[in-house]
Structure formats: C-alpha cells, structure tokens
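Before the break, one more example. Copy the sequence into your notebook; we will annotate it together after we see the structure.
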Amino acid sequence: MSGLHFQVVHLNRRKWIEASTYPHFTMIGQSLGSVYLAWEALNKFTPQFYFDTSGYAFTYPLARLFGCKVICYTHYPTISSDMVERVKQRSSMYNNDSRIAGSIWLSRCKILYYSIFSWLYGLVGSCAHLVMVNSSWTRSHIENIWRIPERTRRVYPPCDTSALQMLPLERSTTPPILISVAQFRPEKAHGLQLEAFAIALKKLSPEFPKPKLQFVGSCRNKEDLERLQKLKDRSTELHIDELVEFHKDISYRDLVQLLGGAVAGLHSMTDEHFGISVVEYMAAGAIPIAHKSAGPMMDIVLDEDGQQTGFLASEKEEYAEAIVKVLRMPEAERHEMATAARKRAQRFSEHRFHEDFTDAACAILGI
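Here is what the structure looks like once it is written out:
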C-alpha cells in the first residue's frame, strides 16, 4: 500500500452530531446530522477507504455513492433489541426516562420510533463492506440488525495494561481496598455499588478489618458533578461515608497506584459493550466483580486454563456476596485467581488488536 495518501479535513458543522443539539429524538437527530457532516467531508476529500470508528452508520450509503470502500469499527450499536425491550417493559433506565416509562401512550410511541429507527439502522449498516466489532455482545446485535454476518468480524479493542501488568499481585494493605473505576455517569450505576458495599459490611464479623471503597472517575459537566455529590450524600445516608473515598480527575500514575493496592474492582454497568475497566482490574491483580451482562460476561470474566478469574453479579445482594468472598479469601487462593485473571487480560493487548485488525482488514485493504 505504498500509494496511500493522507489528508486532514477540517469541518465546520460538528454541532450537528452533538447530543445537546437534539433534546428530543436524539438518535435520529445525530444520525441525520452525521450525514450532513459526512457530505461536507466527502466533498472536500473523497478517500478510497471510508473508515468509521464513531458509529455513524447513516453515512455509509453516502460514502458508497462517492465510490468509497466502507469499513467500520463498531463499539456499540446505536440501537439494540435490549433497548427496545426495556421500553416495552417500561423500565426506567438511562435510555428510557421515568416520564416515558410511567406512560403507556408514550411508551407505545417510543416503541414505534425505535422500531422504525432499528429498520433504518439495519438498512444503512448493511452498506458496509467490512464490519469490525469490539465484543461478542456487539457482534450478536450487529449481526441481528445489519444481517451481514459474512462481513462481520470480532476484534477486541486495544487495552494498554503494560504498567498494570508490572504491579505485584500481593495485597498486604490493611484495611483491604475495593476500587471502582468509571466516569460519574448514570449508566455506571455507582449507587448499586454503594448499597452492595453497605450490605457486605454487615455480613463481616466485627473483628474483621473494615474495608474501604474507593471511587475513581472523571466529571465531564455539571450533571456529572451533581451525581458525584449525590453519591457522597448516599454514602452518608448509609452510614458508610468514613469507609468511602472519592477521587476525581486524578492522573494515570495515581490510578495505577490505587489499583495496585486494591483486592477487588467493582463494575456495575448493565450491557456494557466491552468493559476496559474490568480488563484493567484483572491486569492490575484486583479480582473483578463485574455486571453479569454483555462484554464482562461473554468475553472478559471467563475461566483461564480452567481457573476462575473473577465474579459476575447483577443484584446488590449478589455483589455483596462476591465482595465478602473476595475479602475472606485466603491470600494463596486470591493470588491464584489474580494470576489467572492477569493472564486472561493479555488476550486484550495492543499486540493482539494489531494482529486481529490486520487479519480482518488485509483482504479489503490489499495488504
């Protein structure tokens, strides 16, 4: 591919893909906005290969009209059957606010909207010449909606855990530390972790050293800051505030140090497409306690050489039980599990990503 030519194109209409531009009907608004943005880009420079890594599938037919080979790396389907099912069940979650969940009429309207959008999403997605997805969960949804399994490949994302792999597996910290690494966003369900931690504390004997829970994350805006304050208030309500610490916007070096002292890492996002934070726990030697869904369940927290690598849970009681198991685990047993988890984390390395990406794309790129 010695004849490759690269050109940077500056666009002036980025506001058309910002979620804030569309207070309502956000998915279709951003999707149509992306077509407008792609039109500007393709008129300024028409590439041989159109490579989308942002999930703007509605631009694929346009790119094909311009004569491009369309390749995409999809992290998360814009819409999935799980999202539709939550609306049908009238479950209040991050993709379905309580006002809609509480109304039969609004729920039916949203189901119709989702059904139409899902059909359109399948139509435009099928225009891709090559689809790479980041997990088994994403692949199952993309194959179900786009219906081009012969052009769909799973390529795990690159996780740079080299610094974490160097941490010692021994955890001699007293009291024992649990860690939760994630942005302070609603879908991360930090409140569930707080409640599970409170339940776990009650299950421990009085003479057991009181563990600490450390939240590590970043705040993008005012809403995230408000969520962080609510978590602090909730820890006070649960009478565990003396055992809970919050670290906001810390450096990666400080994060590595905190992970190196943790016996377990908590993850509670439902249907997270992959779960890089879970891989980081495993690489650092912290036993993962992750949500029993999507990436963590299907790809990450699986046995390695017949050895358990962590725990999966969905309800707060299950999380509490797993927390207690890790805290009471003999050091030799914990070390054995952490060793297996670290080995499994190597499956998601940058080197593995390079190999799988090259293998998937070599035919269409001519390399």
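The beta strands are 49-52, 69-74, 130-133, 152-154, 177-181, 212-217, 244-248, 262-266, 287-291, 311-313. The domain at 14-158+351-365 is CATH 3.40.50 (Rossmann fold). Try to locate both features in your own notes.
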